[in-house]
Amino acid sequence: MRIDIISVVPGLLESPFGYSILKRAIDKKIVEVQVINLRDYAENKHKTVDDYPYGGGAGMVMMIEPIDRCITALKARRTYDDVIYLSPDGEMLTQGLANRMSSAKNLILLCGHYKGVDERVRQHLITREISIGDYVLSGGELAAAVLCDSIIRLIPGVLSDETSALSDSFQDNLIAPPAYTRPADYNGLKVPDILLSGNTPEVEKWRHERSLERTRERRPDLLK
């Protein structure tokens, strides 16, 4: 998979891809992530990528010209499955969506800033809009990092134990069950006996029951 991320502040994305699972995936060449500075596609000497909104109002709007030039240049090199705009009012990111997107080969992610992008970008250059929640961030970079993390960890070979992702919360519309590790008894706080029994079918039954119980308590909407 290759992911090209278009940003006006590319430095914000250095840390998320420089550590842990994402870094290992990049080092193993399972995924390639390139962060493109949108200002490189601005033609004026000040590298301007935003302007005042027509009709007045607060804030600035990202211009269509540099975005179009950047996306056109990227598309000249390869075919993309989707050109995604990280937007507060886009399709909500879910585990199911992450599962489907993990099979993509090439993606472009456009990170918004200011008061968003010129509407013509959304109408004519973007194929999909994705939101990570009903709230507003200062820019789309953190949302892009969240989207990438949710997708990349699902690609075969990224996790050392590929079955691990299958037991994550939301994979079967249930929240993950409680997890325990050593010591079995810490100051009188004990691990449930069933987990120490070695009876795998009963352990799995217990975990499923706890998942259902926790989902009913915390996210009953998932059971609908």
Write structural notes for this entry.
By secondary structure, this protein is of the alpha/beta class. The chain is built from 6 helices and 9 strands, in the order E-H-E-E-E-H-E-H-E-H-E-H-E-E-H. The chain has helices at residues 20-27, 64-75, 95-101, 119-124, 141-152, 200-218; strands at 2-7, 32-37, 50-51, 61-62, 82-92, 106-111, 128-131, 185-186, 189-190. The protein has a 5-stranded parallel beta sheet. The protein has a two-stranded antiparallel ribbon with strand order 3-4. Strands 8-9 form a two-stranded antiparallel ribbon. Strand 1 (2-7), helix 1 and strand 2 form a beta-alpha-beta unit. The chain starts with a strand and ends in a 6-residue tail after the last helix. 24% of the residues are buried.
In short:
By secondary structure, this protein is α/β, with parallel strands linked by helices. It is 29% helix and 18% strand.
% residues in beta strands? 15-25%
Instruction: Supply the helix-strand structural class.
Output: alpha/beta
List the helices and strands in order: EHEEEHEHEHEHEEH
Give the strand order, joined by hyphens, for the main sheet: 2-1-6-5-7
Name the shape in a single word.
elongated
| Biggest beta sheet attributes | 5 strands, parallel
Outline the low-pLDDT stretches. Answer: none
Taking the alpha carbons of the first and last residues, their distance comes to 34 Å
Mean pLDDT over the full residue set: 94
Number of strands: 9
Rg over CA atoms, rounded to whole Å, is 22 Å
Which range best describes the helical content: under 10%, 10-25%, 25-40%, 40-55%, 55-70% or over 70%?
25-40%
Task: Quickly count the helices.
Answer: 6
